[in-house]
Automatic annotation (TrEMBL):
GO terms for molecular function: DNA-binding transcription factor activity; transcription cis-regulatory region binding. Keywords: DNA-binding. It comes from Mycolicibacterium aichiense. PANTHER family: HTH-TYPE TRANSCRIPTIONAL REGULATOR RUTR, TRANSCRIPTIONAL REGULATORY PROTEIN (PROBABLY DEOR-FAMILY)-RELATED. The lineage of its organism: Bacteria, Bacillati, Actinomycetota, Actinomycetes, Mycobacteriales. Residues 13-73 form the HTH tetR-type domain. This is TetR family transcriptional regulator. Pfam families: TetR_N. InterPro entries: Homeodomain-like_sf, HTH-type_TetR-like_transc_reg, HTH_TetR. Residues 36-55 bind DNA.
Length: 215
């Protein structure tokens, strides 16, 4: 009796990344609550065994998915800002990053909202979220003093949440106006010498108060 031919193993070197991308699809459609091995396996077109081979548990998949999402966001944001020179140009770059790059891709907006929501409950996701905010602020600090960069980052973060849940979307003109107001207000407060309750060094970095200063 002839033996049945051996089944050829499928060569799939990018399977781990495909699983992560599939998890991002599930996050965008169904949120963290929708993350299951079966849902990811269906989206990635891989057997369940492949998922458990690459990831110990679902939390590891969620972590990898959020880390990938943040890396893509941060890289695109930094690339946008690196192409700009004057403060006015930078504002336009931030507007494009918010309205074209993010709001123009609803699935990414949904994933970002899931990122923020999960950060409230899980320390690992909070670290990933903090990494994203730090990278965004660092990119802005290439063009503005650190206090203004932080203010603009707070506005950007707020706009991202707003765009995720608002029934009436904010227009590009409104986004531009809000960012311009924040940039001008931040610069004016910084240059006026007003006591803002924080110290800034010669390199426009926040100076953390010592324990003695706090008391």
């Amino acid at each position: 009796m002839a033996q049945a031919p051996r089944r050829t193993r499928r060569h799939d070197p990018n399977r781990r990344q495909r699983i992560i991308d599939a998890a991002l699809e599930v996050l965008a459609a169904d949120g963290v609550a929708g993350i299951t091995h079966r849902a990811i396996g269906t989206a990635a077109d891989v057997p369940l065994g492949s998922i458990t081979y690459h990831f110990a548990n679902l939390a590891d998949i969620v972590d990898a998915a959020f880390e990938t999402h943040v890396a893509r966001l941060a890289d695109r944001f930094a690339t946008r800002l690196a192409a700009c020179d004057s403060p006015d140009d930078v504002i336009e770059c931030i507007v494009a990053a918010v309205t074209d790059d993010l709001a123009g891709h609803p699935h990414e907006l949904a994933i970002t909202y899931e990122l923020y929501g999960d950060a409230v409950r899980r320390s690992q996701t909070k670290q990933v979220t903090q990494h994203w905010m730090t990278l965004a602020e660092d990119a802005l600090a290439q063009h503005f003093p650190r206090p203004t960069a932080r203010l603009l980052d707070v506005v950007v973060e707020g706009l991202m949440v707003h765009m995720s849940i608002a029934q009436q979307q904010i227009s590009k003109g409104e986004v531009r106006a809000l960012l311009t107001i924040a940039a001008h207000a931040g610069q004016a407060a910084y240059e006026s010498g007003t006591d803002l309750g924080v110290e800034v060094d010669a390199d426009h970095q926040f100076v953390k108060p010592t324990l003695q200063e706090k008391t």
